Amino acid sequence: MLQDKRIVVGICGGIAAYKSADLVSRLRKKGAQVRVIMTANAQEFITPLTLRSISGYKVATDMFSCPQEWEIQHISLAQWAEYMVIAPATANFIGKVASGIADDLLTTTVMATKSTVVIVPAMNTNMYNNPIVQRNIQSLARDGYLFFGPASGSLACGDEGAGRMEEPSAIVEYMESLAAGKKDFENRTVLVTAGPTREALDPVRFLTNASSGKMGYSIAGAAAKRGARVILVSGPTNIEPPPSVELVPVVTAREMYEKVMHYFPNCDVVIKTAAVSDYRPAVYSGEKIKKTEGRFTIEMVRNPDILAELGGKKKGQVLVGFAAESTNVIDYARDKLRKKNLDLIVANDITREGAGFAGDTNQGYLLDAKGGIQQLPAMTKARMADIILDRVALLLGKDS
Ligand code: PMT
Q1: Ligand 1 centroid, distance to 199 Cα (angstroms)
Q2: Candidates 211, 278, 344, 380: which one to mutate for ligand 1, based on the most atoms within 8 Å of Cβ?
Q3: Per-residue pLDDT in tens (0 to 9) along the chain, 400 residues
Q4: Residue 83 DSSP one-character state
């Protein structure tokens, strides 16, 4: 998987820096081309000469040294890389990148690259658990940086806990899985609901809404690609289900309720994209209702609120809701998040062009249970699916 892949290994100043030599050696044995950047502090722990001997290339250490090639070094390495792996990544490095500070060759290259960046933290356990460091990690993860580790165990400083750098063999395995396509939902069961529900009035008429199923099907497809077993409980749509998902077709809200409750106990994640009818006609007429003069009134009764019930029942599952709103988008979505006991909710402002029902794009906000809010600018529903799954993966990772 790593044959000929172009990987920049960034090394920060921590005791685990000695393991980076082994990492570079293993990556090269897998056939990868490796270039190394070391911070000034890293050079206190291990010499550039060691890394030069192992990588086979002069180690990049300084923004201002005479460039080895004609290109500006941080730009050329940033463009050259297909992957950057920062191991060990210190609290200082994470904090700088999270704050947009680029004051040395490594941080500048990370800022300038469009490659996949994997951050492998290593630090004292109290530092790792410090809320500032955790906030920085969450913020970088939201921006698409990948984190691998840290592992738990006894640390060089004598403390016990999370903060050990992952072993080079494990990092190489992770890089291989990345190169093979992200599989961060392997061994996870994800239940997605999609589309509208239909509530029949008589054999020819029903009440429904404009949901096409596209948002839910995008999430189902993305989760399957990322290794999940996906159960897609879908109302009536005109689109093909993605490959490798288990399609469970339903029509009414009550059918959706039955199926969701059936699968829920064995799921790790539920993402409720469906636009479920809140009401259904109180009476179903077995025969077609005939026209009469004057007004025609339909009495409606409430359908079960599937998501609210899951919120009351959940035992460690990650619950994600959607809210399509036309006013007070964030406030209404936050209210639903709280009342339905959700972990995340995606708020769509359906008054905006290219958002909400039927199209191939969406935009809005991703709100979490801690009060965090991430703006989701206009993007394809496929891209939004991956961003939502990245956040879910982070929540799953915390529990495991
Ligand atoms: O399908 P597309 O055309 O791609 O469009 C996508 C979408 C706009 C339908 C989708 O992104 C979306 O916003 N879905 C939620 C629509 C909505 O407004 O839901 P709600 O506010 O009624 O419900 C909030 C949440 O509770 C939803 O996750 C919903 O699935 C769930 N719910 C609602 C009512 C109910 N009886 N049971 C539920 O589980």
Answers
A1: 15
A2: 211
A3: 899 999 999 999 999 999 999 999 999 999 999 999 999 999 999 999 999 999 999 999 988 765 555 456 667 899 999 999 999 999 999 999 999 999 999 999 999 999 999 999 999 999 988 999 988 987 887 787 888 888 877 777 777 777 899 999 989 988 987 888 878 899 999 999 999 999 999 999 999 999 999 999 999 999 998 999 999 999 999 999 988 899 999 999 999 999 999 999 999 999 999 999 999 999 999 999 999 999 999 999 999 999 999 999 999 999 999 999 999 999 999 999 999 999 999 999 898 888 889 888 888 999 999 999 888 877 778 878 988 998 999 899 854 3
A4: E
Token duo for residue 119: 């951050």
Beta carbon of 303 within 6 Å of any ligand 1 atom: yes
The Cα 146–Cα 174 span in angstroms is 11
Nearest to 274 by CA among 341, 196, 362: 196
User: Ligand 1: distance of its center to the CA of 276 in Å?
Assistant: 6
Q: Is 336 in the pocket of ligand 1 (CB under 6 A)?
A: yes
Ligand 1, closest atom to CA 260? 39
Do 383 and 273 reside in the same domain of the chain? yes
Q: Does any ligand 1 atom lie closer than 6 A to the CB of residue 307?
A: yes
Regarding whether 236 and 150 lie in a shared domain, the answer is: no
Amino acid at 95: G
Is 249 part of a structural domain of the chain?
A: yes
Query: In this structure, what CATH number is given to the domain that contains residue 304?
Result: 3.40.50.10300
Q: Are residues 69 and 93 in the same domain?
A: yes
Q: In ligand 1, which atom is closest to the CA atom of 345?
A: 28
Q: Is 218 in the pocket of ligand 1 (CB under 6 A)?
A: no
User: Does the active-site annotation cover 157?
Assistant: yes
Q: Are residues 275 and 350 in the same domain?
A: yes
User: Which CATH number covers residue 98?
Assistant: 3.40.50.1950
Total domain count, the chain: 2
CA angle, 117 as apex, 112 and 123 as ends, to 5°? 110
Alpha helices in 89-180 (DSSP H): 91-98, 105-112, 125-129, 131-142, 168-179
Shared domain for 353 and 247, answered yes or no, is yes
Closest residue by CA, ligand 1 atom 27: 322
Instruction: Quote the longest CA-to-CA distance of the chain.
Output: 93
Domain span at 37: 6-180
Asked whether 51 lines ligand 1 (CB < 6 A), one says no
